[in-house]
Amino acid sequence: MSSQLPKISVIMPVYNGEKYLSEAIESVLNQTYNNFELIILNDKSTDSSKEIIQSYQAKDNRIVFVDKTENVGPATLRSEGFDVAKGEFIALLDADDIAMPSRFEKQIRILNNNENIGVCGSWFTTFGEKMPDKVIQHPENHNQIKVNFLIDCTIGNSTALFRKNVLDGIRYDKDFVPAEDYHLWSRLITKTQFYIIQESLVRYRIHDTNISQTKIDNVKRSTKRVKIGLLKEFGIQEDNTQIESFFNLIEGQKGLTFDAIKSVCECENTLLIQNKKLGNFDAVLLEKMLLKSLRRMVRKPQKQSFELIRYIQKNKPQLYRSIPFFDKLMMYCKAVIG
Length: 338
Known about the structure:
By secondary structure, this protein is α/β, with parallel strands linked by helices. The chain has helices at 21-29, 49-59, 74-84, 103-113, 142-148, 180-188, 213-231, 243-251, 258-278, 283-299, 306-315, 317-322, 325-337, and strands at residues 8-14, 36-42, 63-67, 89-92, 98-99, 117-128, 131-136, 161-163, 193-205. Strands 1, 2, 3, 4, 5, 6, 7, 8 and 9 form a nine-stranded mixed β-sheet that branches. The longest helix is centred in the C-terminal third of the chain and has 21 residues, at 258-278.
C-alpha cells in the first residue's frame, strides 16, 4: 500500500470460506476502480482460508489481513472492519459473493456526484447449484426505499458502498443476529439518503443447505425488534397496546379475524396522522404501501363475512374502491358460503 490513503475500504469477513474465497477476493482485486484497500478478517477458520488470504496478500499490497484468535461472528467482524478502515468510503462483500468488475466505479461515481447520498447499493443476482439466476430488484428512490424498509430490508448487504462518516458511531449489533444487517441499515436510513443503482452489480451465492426452524424463529424475532425501532419514526413505542396490530399492518398479515382487521385499520389511521405531524416518510408512498397491505388482509381474512365487507365500504372507502372487481366478487361469494 502506498503512503496515500485508499479511497475505499472493502470489508470481507471470512469463516471457513475456502471453497469460494478466491473467487470473492479476485472479484475485488479485478475492479476497474482500483484505489482501495481490501480488509479481510478471518474469524479463526479451521480450513485453509488463512493460507488462501496470505497467498493473495503476498501478491497484492492492497490486502490488509486481520487474523482473529477467537471466533466472534460476522457482525463483530464487520464492526471491527469499520474501525480499521482508512478509506473515505466503505464497501461490503461477503466471502462467498462476487462483485461485478465495474461495481466500485459505478457506485463511487454516484456518491461523488451526489453529496446528499450517504449509502449506495445496487440490484443483485442470486445464484447457486441447482437453481437459476434471479435478479433481486430494489427501488431507486430514497423515499420509496425508506417506506419499503417498514416491510423488509431494502438493500443487499454485499452491494453496499457508503460514506464512512455517516456511521457516526453506529455499528452492527450482534444482539440482532441474524437480522443485524437490517438493523444497521434501518438506523442509517433515518440519517442519510440511500440510492440503489438499477443494475445487478453483485452475484449473491445461495447455499444448498436447510435453514433450521430455530434460525427462522430468530430472524422473525430480530426483524420484529427492528420494526419496533422504525415505528418510533411515527412516535409509536414498544409498549403501545396495539403494537401487534401495527406489525400486522406493515406485514400485510393474512388470516386475521374481523376484530383484528378493525384494529389494523385503526392503526393505519394512526400512522397516517402521525406521519402528517412528523413528516418522516413520503405521505403518498406511505399511504400506497399501507393500502396494499390492507387490501391483502381483507381479501384473505380468517373468515370472509358481509359484516367485514360493509365495514370496509363504510370506514375504508378508498380501500374498497382499490380492490379489483374479480376479488370483490370472490369476497362476496366466500361471505355467502360463510
